[in-house]
Amino acid sequence: MGKETGDKSKDKVTFSKDFSATDDAVRNIKDMSEIREDKVAAIKRRLASGRYRVEGDRVASRLLCETEENNDILKQIDIDG
C-alpha cells in the first residue's frame, strides 16, 4: 500500500491580468439591465408627440450587420468545435 510522504504541495493556478479584466467586463455586462431606460423614455416622448418615425433602411442595415456578425461567430464555433 502507498505511504504518505508528507509532501503536501498543492496545485496552483494563476490568471493573467487580461483574464481578470475580461472576467470583470463579463461580470459588469451580466449586472447591466437589458433595457435601456433612457432610450425607452426618449422613444415614449417622441411617440406621444407624434415625432417618432421608423427608418426602415436603417433597421434593415442593422439587422444585416448583426446577421453577418452572428454568422462569423457560428463559423468560429464550427472551426474550433
TrEMBL record:
Pfam families: FlgM. InterPro entries: Anti-sigma-28_factor_FlgM_sf, FlgM, FlgM_C. SUPFAM superfamilies: Anti-sigma factor FlgM. The keyword Repressor applies. The keyword Transcription regulation applies. Keywords: Bacterial flagellum biogenesis, Repressor, Transcription, Transcription regulation. GO terms for biological process: bacterial-type flagellum organization; negative regulation of DNA-templated transcription. Responsible for the coupling of flagellin expression to flagellar assembly by preventing expression of the flagellin genes when a component of the middle class of proteins is defective. It negatively regulates flagellar genes by inhibiting the activity of FliA by directly binding to FliA. This is Negative regulator of flagellin synthesis. It comes from Desulfosarcina ovata subsp. sediminis.
